[in-house]
Design a protein that fits this description.
Blueprint lengths: L12 H11 L4 E5 L2 E4 H17 L7 E5 L4 H12 L3 E4 L6 H8 L8 E2 L10 E2 L5 H6 L16 E7 L7 E6 H5 L15 E4 L6 H11 L4 E4 L7 H11 L3 E5 H10 L9 E5 L5 H10 L5 E5 L9 E4 L15 E2 L4 E5 L12 E6 L6 E2 L3 H7 L2 E4 L2 E14 L5 E6 L3 E4 L2 E4 H9 L4 E10 L5 E10 L7 H8 L11 E4 L13 H6 L3
Parallel strand pairs: 1-10, 3-4, 3-5, 4-7, 5-6, 9-10, 11-12, 12-13, 25-26
Antiparallel strand pairs: 1-2, 7-8, 8-18, 13-14, 14-15, 16-17, 17-20, 19-20, 20-21, 22-23, 24-25
């Protein structure tokens, strides 16, 4: 966003991809293994698949569940769903059958597309994973004409478990996906730029990696692995020309600790999903002072990102931690007190987002939709917003700082404790690689103590009593954890974030 003005135009996702194909049909769009696919091949194959979908009964406004592994074939199928006027919901075939069944039960007898042979529960139609070039070559003369889509039409559904573990579908319109990409949008996207596609397909940052490039003329490399390890990152930069990547904070910290030279050759780096570690950011910037590294913040309900901040050396020494910055193009952010009144600068409040990124709501959950997506007065105008449930503060310069989930504030022995503050204090200790603060409850559900679960930098030694002593100089006595548990690695969810629920369930 440096030096740019204006806001990217809002378009439907497939219209934007088709524009790129019309402008430069032979430019690279996708890479998977030895398969290199240009824009003409991708969009032609997608139109063939859209014709098959409509022949199976898919109609505009439908939600089409896709039980297909990540890859070029899935991407063409997703694009075909959008061209048919429907929206897609990508489910991982490796998920437990109970999770898949729970999601399909929320939909109205849909066409469910999967792979032939050993179909998971609920698949009604199957497609062979043919190369996209073969699908495009068999297109014939009667290609399907893509259905125009409105900006508010449903494009995709992302699923998040939330605090209950029950799959919750977030309904994303076309405008939410295209709003950040193009002239005036985020750096690192467009012709000549290449991003690895690593994120799980049911997660909103999959759309960031994929549609950010394909709606602007860039390219994506499909990575088979679930996470981008340092050796793989090196190979992608050297062999495929990857220059723009997204990493969850935990994975970024891992690369900084184990092989920081793996970042050599990148052009733009986005990091987020969890609170940044000042120590890791400082180490990165010492080695790569000119490589733009952006802190990205945003829940799936305000698709992909809400705010970004280009991190600088001074941020690592900031007493309130590394900020998440300023809103992405077209987005407005305000902070609200518990009573619903605006929080002034310097005071914490709930982060509320407005603009084209706001989701349509939750799938078949009107109650939660009304609670999280109310209409509020913003700057004298009635606007539909997202109440994120995240706590933040705007500083004197209007820069947003993130303090964690509102529901991660606990009460212990009469004292309110922000678990995110505990994690920030521990992360500043050089020997700590990763950490998470979790509240452990007794049989009656009352918080019994706070546990700090952590890993150490290779070769470091730090006894729990010494860690406790150091934290007493950084935290109020009541906020110092009661338990310290060192692990070789923290459990993670599919999207790379620390699995807090798994840590909460640990005995101790």
């Amino acid at each position: 966003m440096t030096g740019r003005t204006g806001v990217p135009p809002l378009r439907s996702v497939h219209a934007a991809v088709l524009e790129c194909a019309d402008r430069a049909p032979h430019d690279l769009a996708l890479v998977q293994g030895d398969e290199r696919i240009d824009y003409r091949t991708l969009t032609t194959a997608a139109r063939v698949l859209a014709g098959r979908l409509t022949g199976w009964g898919v109609r505009p406004g439908d939600i089409v569940p896709l039980l297909v592994p990540r890859g070029a074939h899935l991407i063409a199928l997703q694009l075909g769903v959008l061209m048919s006027g429907a929206g897609y919901a990508t489910l991982d075939p490796r998920w437990p059958q109970s999770r898949i069944a729970s999601i399909l039960a929320q939909l109205d007898d849909p066409v469910v597309v999967g792979r032939p042979g050993g179909e998971p529960l609920g698949v009604t139609r199957t497609l062979d994973p043919s190369p996209l070039s073969a699908i495009a070559d068999d297109a014939g003369s009667g290609l399907f004409a893509p259905v125009p889509a409105g900006l508010d039409d449903l494009a995709m559904v992302f699923f998040t478990s939330g605090s209950t573990g029950v799959p919750k579908g977030v309904l994303i319109p076309h405008r939410a996906v295209t709003r950040m990409f193009g002239p005036g949008g985020l750096d690192g996207f467009g012709p000549g730029h290449i991003t690895p596609q690593v994120a799980p397909a049911a997660w909103d940052m999959y759309a960031f990696e994929l549609w950010g490039q394909l709606t602007t003329g860039g390219a994506c490399v499909v990575v088979e692995e679930s996470h981008l390890m340092p050796s793989r990152l090196r190979t992608l930069v050297a062999d495929e020309g990857v220059d723009t990547i997204w990493l969850t904070t935990s994975l970024f910290n891992l690369v900084v600790d184990e092989d920081p030279e793996a970042f050599e050759g990148l052009g733009t780096l986005y990091v987020g999903g969890e609170k940044q570690s000042p120590r890791h950011v400082a180490r990165f910037l010492e080695r790569f002072p000119d490589l733009p590294i952006w802190n990205g913040f945003g829940p799936a309900e305000n698709c992909m990102l809400t705010a970004v901040h280009r991190m600088a050396p001074a941020d690592s020494a900031a007493p309130v931690g590394i900020p998440v910055g300023r809103p992405v193009p077209g987005t407005t952010v305000v902070l609200l007190r518990e009573d619903g009144t605006p929080a002034p600068r310097g005071e914490r409040g709930e982060i509320v987002a407005a603009g084209p990124g706001v989701a349509l709501g939750y799938l078949n959950n009107e109650t939660q939709t009304r609670e999280r997506f109310p209409t509020l007065e913003i700057a004298g105008e009635q606007r539909r917003v997202l109440r994120t449930g995240d706590m933040g503060m705007l500083d004197d310069d209007g820069v947003l700082h993130y303090y964690g989930r509102r529901d991660r504030q606990i009460k212990l022995s009469g004292n309110r404790i922000e678990l995110g503050d505990v994690e920030a204090a521990a992360s500043a200790i050089p020997e700590i690689r990763t950490c998470a603060a979790v509240a452990r409850t007794d049989a009656g559900g009352t918080v019994a103590h706070v546990a700090l679960v952590y890993t150490l930098v290779d070769g470091a030694e730090l006894a729990p009593r010494d860690l406790r002593r150091r934290l007493t100089t950084r935290l109020p006595a009541y906020a110092v954890p009661g338990r310290f548990e060192q692990l070789d690695d923290l459990p993670r969810r599919d999207n790379g974030k620390v699995d807090l629920q798994a840590l909460e369930r640990r005995a101790g």
